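Module 6 notes. Inverse folding takes a fixed backbone as the condition and produces residue identities as the prediction. Think of it as a translation problem where the source language is geometry and the target language is the twenty amino acids. Below is one complete input and output pair. Work through it position by position during the lab.
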């Protein structure tokens, strides 16, 4: 039994003298007790409420909703916001008072005018929403504003790459650039260097597949005078030493032999090396970047590439998507190369719309390099200031059938095969940077590629 609230007559003076808005109703919803402050939120005198039914007051719009029916329904304390008049918002708390047998006998309610608080809350909510909107716009703007000089990075995947590079700008961390041939790994490596704390130091690029294994160590670590037959008297500085204070970029790292992988791992771990024939250790002082178009994780599984070396290199992996997955970049690159190459060759050139539409449809297996080469070819060979689809080399007319491209009339099979071979080689040359890459792609030896390129003068 709640002794405090049971005898309202005893409490009469206490409640009625309170300045706050307190009311007591019975279980029929009749207001049986009011305080001095009752009704002030509703714009009526306390006496105007006393003896009235909350249902009636609700109907008349003095307040809405009434709290008594809610407390009776839920049989527990209820807090709600009432509307009073057209503008006011009142926070009302209703508490049930039970009799000995557990039935609600009275409901005590007290209220505060929270109109101002709610207005402030709404205002705060709108400010928060506005801030969230501004923040996302800023994020977008910041991403868009990551301009990479001489590099087109309009697409979302490239913006993400740019954002990662921006985040690691001040850190001397190893970056592994992954992606198909021609996607721009070397260009990005240069960009990373130019935007790093080592930008004033040298950028040394080593193409791991282009240096024969027999001389790799001497080229890479340098050698002392007389270290081997044919060595220069004074010795020679290797790439690792040349990169002092700057960046050492190991391109095509996936092509390194197992023996050289082991050497490289030791060198990365020890952070020092010896020139071939030398006894004095040289301290390694550079930031390491590496790139490959090989699936290195797969190469680790097939044991072609050392896992420990992979972990050392894969600190920050940057995957550069192929151009066919970056339509926004493709369009921007076409415009970029048109301008840059036209300027370089002092030729004012424009592209016809049908040609641009056609270029946007192509697969670009050789990625940005292939596009750049084709643009250069179009610009230097076209005789008119507007380049059209007709100016495209035959291999870029994808709709045309192979039958139409090979002319049998009066040709022997060997000459047709030669013609095809030449076209395949030109195509491969557009896509790949080195003859080793072409050889790998076409499944022939590198000397054979060199011979054929010479034979066809391409
Ligand atoms: N986003 C880009 N904006 C402008 N030029 C680019 C961009 N990406 C690549 N290029 C240009 O495309 C050509 C090929 O790029 P790059 O040599 O960096 O490719 P790669 O991925 O290193 O190729 P590979 O694996 O064969 O070494 C370069 O001339 C480079 O400057």
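Target side of the pair, the amino acids:
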């Amino acid at each position: 039994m709640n002794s405090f609230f049971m005898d309202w007559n005893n409490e009469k003076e206490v409640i009625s003298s309170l300045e706050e808005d307190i009311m007591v109703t019975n279980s029929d919803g009749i207001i049986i007790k009011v305080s001095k402050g009752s009704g002030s939120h509703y714009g009526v005198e306390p006496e105007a409420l006393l003896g009235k039914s909350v249902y009636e007051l609700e109907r008349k719009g003095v307040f809405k909703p009434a709290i008594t029916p809610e407390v009776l329904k839920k049989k527990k304390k209820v807090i709600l916001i009432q509307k009073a008049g057209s503008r006011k918002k009142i926070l009302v708390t209703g508490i049930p008072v039970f009799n000995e047998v557990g039935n609600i006998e009275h409901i005590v309610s007290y209220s505060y005018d929270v109109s101002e608080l709610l207005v402030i809350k709404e205002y705060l909510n709108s400010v928060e929403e506005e801030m969230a909107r501004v923040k996302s716009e800023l994020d977008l703007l910041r991403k868009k504003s990551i301009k990479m000089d001489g590099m087109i990075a309009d697409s979302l995947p490239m913006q993400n790459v740019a954002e990662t590079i921006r985040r690691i700008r001040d850190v001397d961390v190893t970056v592994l650039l992954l992606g198909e041939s021609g996607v721009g790994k070397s260009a990005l490596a240069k960009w990373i260097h130019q935007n790093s704390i080592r930008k004033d130091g040298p950028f040394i690029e080593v193409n791991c597949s282009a240096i024969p294994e027999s001389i790799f160590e001497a080229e890479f670590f340098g050698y002392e005078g007389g270290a081997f037959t044919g060595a220069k008297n004074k010795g020679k500085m290797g790439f690792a030493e040349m990169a002092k204070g700057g960046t050492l970029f190991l391109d095509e790292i996936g092509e390194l032999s197992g023996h050289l992988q082991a050497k490289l791992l030791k060198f990365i771990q020890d952070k020092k090396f010896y020139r071939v024939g030398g006894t004095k250790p040289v301290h390694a002082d550079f930031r390491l970047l590496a790139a490959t178009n090989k699936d290195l994780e797969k190469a680790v599984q097939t044991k072609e590439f050392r896992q420990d070396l992979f972990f050392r290199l894969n600190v920050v992996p940057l995957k550069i998507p192929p151009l066919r997955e970056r339509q926004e970049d493709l369009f921007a690159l076409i415009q970029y190369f048109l301008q840059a190459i036209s300027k370089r060759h002092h030729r004012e050139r424009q592209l016809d719309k049908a040609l641009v539409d056609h270029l946007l449809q192509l697969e670009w297996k050789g990625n940005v390099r292939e596009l750049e080469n084709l643009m250069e070819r179009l610009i230097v060979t076209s005789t008119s200031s507007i380049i059209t689809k007709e100016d495209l080399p035959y291999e870029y007319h994808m709709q045309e059938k192979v039958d139409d491209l090979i002319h049998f009339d009066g040709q022997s099979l060997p000459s047709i095969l030669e013609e095809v071979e030449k076209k395949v080689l030109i195509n491969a040359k557009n896509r790949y940077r080195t003859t080793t890459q072409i050889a790998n792609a076409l499944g022939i030896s590198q000397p054979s590629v060199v011979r054929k390129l010479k034979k066809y003068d391409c």
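Reference fact for the lab report: The mean pLDDT is 86.
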